[in-house]
From TrEMBL:
Residues 1-23 form the signal peptide. Keywords: Signal. It comes from Aerophobetes bacterium. This is Uncharacterized protein. It comes from the Bacteria.
């Protein structure tokens, strides 16, 4: 509750200052989900949730402020809130809620992602190349976390590298990952590999493969596999079908194997875009 109140105060100040101090343009987007979810051998539950992003941007300058609200199964939270300065050569974000650096799709419950804390991020975009840098500090502790990444695109190919140094995480001290993607018409292929050192996951490596295919009519099929040097693997399948303007029907299935035990979870829901 305290986190929500502090976050709300930060959001109000940010948007208030942005609106008062400049000629602001307000924009928003979001979605509402409703359906069912369940687990193998368990009961079926109702799935509900919504997301709402609100931004105030300087109509004649580089400043903007954004806040992202979310409500998942009745739990209200502020997902994100930041002030952004977008110059021609770089973009700088000040995030008082929390900023991290995800190790692509290789983490399980954020275990090898950079720990999120209040901090800053810097992105330097170029025509075919971009560089990003993230830094944050744990509240009430002299602990700093850093992350960096580079992305390169060439025709239908994309390449990426990420490195994280985390003084706060119990799972790892440093991590790195590489990513390659290929797009051809309706088909997208992605491959990722990463490893960590230090902490309880010292020496663990993981790999990830994904196939995405867009069918006639706009339906999208996504298949992915996550493997690891641990006793861990995950298979994911999703079908997203547009059934009306701004309405999609989504079915997904996740099968996770760890410690010799397999758990299967499924969801089927309507997503209404706002």
């Amino acid at each position: 509750m305290r986190k929500v109140l502090v976050g709300a105060l930060i959001v109000c100040l940010s948007l208030g200052l942005a609106t008062i101090a400049m000629a602001a343009e307000i924009s928003w987007s979001g979605s509402v989900d409703f359906g069912i979810t369940g687990e193998s051998g368990g009961s079926v539950d109702i799935l509900t949730g919504w997301e709402l992003d609100v931004s105030a941007a300087d109509s004649s300058g580089p400043w903007s402020a954004t806040v992202a609200f979310a409500n998942d199964a009745g739990a209200f939270d502020i997902d994100d809130a930041y002030i952004e300065y977008a110059a021609e050569a770089f973009t700088l974000q000040l995030n008082p809620v929390g900023v991290g650096n995800d190790l692509y799709d290789l983490a399980v419950d954020d275990d090898i992602d950079l720990t999120s804390n209040p901090g800053i991020s810097l992105t330097i975009p170029m025509e075919t190349f971009s560089f990003s840098l993230v830094g944050n500090k744990a509240s009430g502790a002299d602990t700093y976390n850093f992350g960096a990444g580079v992305d390169f695109s060439m025709d239908n190919l994309g390449f990426g590298l990420i490195f994280n140094s985390d003084q706060e995480s119990a799972e790892f001290d440093s991590s790195y990952a590489g990513k390659i993607s290929y797009t051809m018409d309706a088909l997208t292929l992605t491959g990722e590999y990463g490893a960590v050192s230090g902490g309880t996951l010292d020496g663990v490596s993981r790999y990830y493969a994904e196939l995405g295919y867009t069918l006639t009519g706009g339906s999208v099929i996504t298949l992915s596999y996550l493997g690891s040097s641990e006793d861990l693997s995950e298979i994911y399948a999703e079908l997203s079908t547009p059934i009306a303007e701004k309405v999609d029907f989504i079915v997904d299935l996740t099968s996770t194997t760890t410690g010799g035990s397999t758990t299967t979870e499924y969801e089927a829901y309507l997503e209404f875009s706002l």
